[in-house]
């Protein structure tokens, strides 16, 4: 077991042989739970737990079902990050998409030699990264699966073949943000008049059912080599808009990677999240470390000063993210320096309880290479899920196709991501290369922050993750502060409104109790706007020796235990603006 010193600890676990990989299914476990953004996907995971599956098995089944019922947010055409806990400790998997090897720093430049806007770069083939989600599932299954691979696909295959009811989220996503989706996808979700089908309509996807059946039978390699890989490559390279230069070799060579988890302490709790290539875990942990010297518990959740401090810590953490975070296989990321105690103390000292910083700049942590800051354009999207099994193993997974319906392209009923627009489109700023520039084979930076929190007793206290683009980082940080400092349940911590302040202007979530704090925030020098946000989080916590689920009331999500009990969630009506996807 390997540890990073200073305030960051990492556990690097070797790739293990399958754990009881092909043993007969056991009797239904006495405990176990799934929290996901759709009840049908959560039910798929519970079905696998009841069949004797592990938390990893249940997570895979849940992801596959989300692929069917929540195609605007995730699927095997996208990527994922895993944070898992078992008897050996914590491990993480990086299944982030990669750029084709032909990608160059000017990948998103037009024929006129000028960079495309983010909106113009999204549709079509050029934004599609080599999908990693399926390889991530295969690696996770090798490490912690119990049931046969094919068994995990059965709930999703049934949903795709037999059909599922159209829900408000999917209907809204297509109506408001699906203008770029291909004709095949649109035909499946619209009527003869071209209008989106009414709520409750049964959606069937036989092409996707057949694809999942092939992968279940033939294994994950069948997606990355052979006819299936050629079909994907042809789709992106012959796209009407922004054709790509992907090859079958790009798919065949893709590998999900075990990474050391990124862990830090906060008020006696050990918090482990996803390290680079994601920038989410490090930024979320930075926010917590910068706030640790303040008495957030005493200030309370209704204090303008507490949220001002949260905003200031966010600005400092995001500034460092924009400057230094990228794919560690391509750029030097000063993770140890970012969490050096002296560096954290110097950055935290910039935060004043009674006033707002006039400007915010990245710091210079020990070991930092020369860099230039380049904020990226991220859009709400993604989905998150948490599973726990009878043995207390936990899987926290955040998975995505990036924006609504990804690139708009699909293969066999499955949407393809637009993940490459998470790169900085312009590779050079002020004469210096940016860390998150496009390069062949590289993974774009992400805000995804799947996280497991260990209590002072060393046991899992909370597993939490979120969806919603750059807000993911602050959603997770807010939930952890809510549970640890404000003694909220995970459910209430997720439901709590959000203040999102990566840069100068702080956005207060419309329709929440935080709106009442705006005058107090302004008195502290904050520039504040009130707006709806596309938020969506899921969690499972351990209270008094039992597991309790939580799901975001802004979403259609639920938490279901193996007895079929659904956690009580007070729903929030759909607000105007972008939905939580």
TrEMBL record:
It holds the Pfam family G_glu_transpept. GO terms for molecular function: glutathione hydrolase activity; leukotriene C4 gamma-glutamyl transferase activity. Cleaved by autocatalysis into a large and a small subunit. The active site is at residue 382. Pathway: Sulfur metabolism; glutathione metabolism. It catalyses: an S-substituted glutathione + H2O = an S-substituted L-cysteinylglycine + L-glutamate; glutathione + H2O = L-cysteinylglycine + L-glutamate; an N-terminal (5-L-glutamyl)-[peptide] + an alpha-amino acid = 5-L-glutamyl amino acid + an N-terminal L-alpha-aminoacyl-[peptide]. Its EC number is 2.3.2.2, 3.4.19.13. InterPro entries: GGT_bact, GGT_lsub, GGT_peptidase, GGT_ssub_C, Ntn_hydrolases_N. L-glutamate binds at residues 96, 422, 446-447, 469. SUPFAM superfamilies: N-terminal nucleophile aminohydrolases (Ntn hydrolases). Keywords: Acyltransferase, Glutathione biosynthesis, Hydrolase, Signal, Transferase, Zymogen. Residues 1-21 form the signal peptide. It comes from the Bacteria. One of its GO terms (biological process) is glutathione catabolic process. PANTHER family: GLUTATHIONE HYDROLASE, GLUTATHIONE HYDROLASE PROENZYME. This enzyme consists of two polypeptide chains, which are synthesized in precursor form from a single polypeptide. NCBIfam families: g_glut_trans. This is Glutathione hydrolase proenzyme. The gene is ggt.
């Amino acid at each position: 077991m390997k540890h990073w010193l200073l305030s960051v600890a990492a556990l690097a676990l070797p790739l293990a042989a399958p754990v009881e990989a092909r043993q007969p299914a056991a009797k239904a476990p006495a405990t176990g739970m799934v929290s996901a953004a759709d009840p049908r996907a959560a039910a798929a995971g519970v079905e696998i737990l009841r069949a004797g599956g592990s938390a990893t098995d249940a997570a895979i089944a849940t992801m596959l079902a989300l692929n069917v019922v929540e195609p605007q947010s995730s699927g095997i055409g996208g990527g994922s990050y895993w944070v898992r806990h078992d008897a050996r400790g914590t491990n993480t998997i990086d299944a982030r998409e990669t750029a084709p090897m032909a990608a160059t720093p000017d990948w998103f430049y037009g024929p006129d030699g000028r960079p495309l806007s983010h909106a113009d770069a999204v549709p079509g083939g050029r934004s599609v990264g080599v999908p990693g989600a399926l390889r991530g599932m295969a690696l996770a299954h090798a490490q912690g699966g119990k049931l046969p691979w094919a068994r995990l696909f059965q709930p999703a295959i049934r949903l795709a073949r037999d059909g599922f009811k159209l829900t408000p989220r999917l209907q809204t996503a297509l109506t408001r943000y699906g203008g770029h989706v291909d004709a095949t996808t649109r035909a499946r979700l619209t009527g003869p008049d071209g209008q989106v089908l009414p709520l409750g309509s049964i959606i069937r996807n036989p092409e996707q059912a057949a694809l999942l059946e092939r992968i279940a039978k033939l294994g994950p390699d069948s997606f990355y080599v052979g006819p299936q890989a050629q079909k994907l490559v042809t789709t992106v390279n012959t796209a009407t808009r922004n054709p790509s230069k992907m090859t079958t070799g790009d798919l065949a060579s893709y590998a999900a990677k075990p990474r050391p988890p990124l862990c830090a302490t906060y008020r006696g709790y050990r918090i482990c999240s996803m390290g680079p290539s994601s920038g989410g875990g490090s930024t979320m942990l930075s926010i917590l470390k910068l706030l640790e010297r303040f008495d957030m518990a005493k200030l309370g959740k209704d204090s303008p000063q507490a949220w001002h401090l949260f905003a200031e810590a966010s600005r400092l953490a995001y500034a460092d993210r924009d400057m230094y975070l990228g794919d560690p296989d391509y750029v030097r990321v000063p993770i140890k320096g970012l969490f050096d105690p002296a560096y954290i103390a110097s950055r935290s000292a910039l935060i004043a309880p009674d006033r707002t910083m006039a400007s915010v700049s990245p710091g210079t942590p020990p070991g930092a290479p020369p860099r230039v800051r380049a904020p990226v354009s991220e859009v709400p999207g993604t989905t998150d899920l948490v599973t726990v099994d009878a043995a207390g193993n936990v899987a926290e997974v955040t998975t995505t196709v990036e924006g609504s319906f990804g690139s708009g392209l699909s293969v066999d009923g499955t949407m393809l991501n637009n993940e490459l627009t998470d790169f900085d489109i312009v590779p050079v700023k002020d004469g210096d290369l940016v860390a998150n520039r496009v390069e062949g084979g590289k993974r774009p930076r992400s805000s995804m922050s799947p996280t497991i929190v260990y209590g002072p007793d060393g046991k899992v206290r909370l597993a939490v993750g979120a969806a919603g683009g750059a807000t993911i980082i602050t959603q997770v940080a807010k939930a952890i502060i809510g549970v640890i400092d404000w003694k909220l349940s995970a459910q209430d911590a997720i439901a709590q409104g959000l203040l999102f302040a990566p840069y100068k202007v702080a956005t207060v979530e419309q329709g929440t109790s935080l709106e009442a704090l705006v005058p107090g925030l302004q008195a502290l020098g904050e520039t504040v706007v009130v707006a709806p946000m596309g938020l969506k989080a899921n969690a499972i916590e351990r209270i008094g020796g039992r597991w309790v689920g939580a799901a975001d009331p802004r979403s259609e999500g639920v938490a279901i235990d193996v007895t079929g009990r659904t956690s009580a969630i007070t729903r929030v009506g759909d607000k105007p603006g972008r939905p939580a996807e």
